[in-house]
Amino acid sequence: QVQLVESGGGLVQAGGSLRLSCAASIRTFSTYVMGWFRQAPGKEREFVAYITWNDGSTAYADSVKGRFTISKDNTNNTVYLQMNSLKAEDTAVYYCTSGGRALLLHRPGDYWGQGTQVTVSS
After folding, report:
1. Using 50, 70 and 90 to split pLDDT, how confident is the model at 77?
2. Tens-place pLDDT, residues 18-41
3. What is the pLDDT of residues 99-121, one digit of tens each?
4. Alpha-carbon distance 103 to 106, whole Å?
5. Which of 5, 7, 39, 121 has a 20 to 30 Å separation from 25 between CA atoms?
6. Any residues with CB less than 8 A from the CB of 121 and at least 6 apart, and which?
7. Cβ distance 63 to 37 under 8 Å?
8. Which residues does residue 69 pair with via DSSP β-bridges, in sequence order?
């Protein structure tokens, strides 16, 4: 059973930065991809970024490319999302997710964290 615990959300002014963390209880071949999705009020949950445990391959949604950076620490099974140049439209609940093939296709993973609120003020 995989458990994901997110932290780091909060309120930040537009143009500011925030770093989210996701600690995974276990890392297996079945959960070789970690990623982030977000969901704003009235909108569908959307893909943000992913990273693979083994080689660190990454991918980003066009809306965050160049502003967000996903990274990992294999020693403590933690994934990070560094968010810079934040915009009001980045306001959403951010969810950590873990899975395999689906995430590589920018689809939802098999396991989810509880979500952490990110609010960007104008």
Report:
1. very high
2. 999 999 988 777 779 999 999 999
3. 988 999 999 999 999 999 999 99
4. 5
5. 39
6. 11, 12, 13, 14, 88
7. no
8. 82
- Total length of the chain: 122
In 3D, which of 13, 14, 23, 17 has the Cα closest to residue 80? 23
How far is it, in rounded angstroms, from Cα 95 to Cα 63? 17
79 exposure class (CB count in 10 Å sphere: 0-12, 13-18, 19+): buried
Residue 49 vs residue 32, higher pLDDT? 49
- The strand pair at 33-39 and 92-99 is best described as antiparallel
**Tokens encoding 24:** 């995974």
- Using an 8 Å Cβ cutoff, are 66 and 84 in contact? no
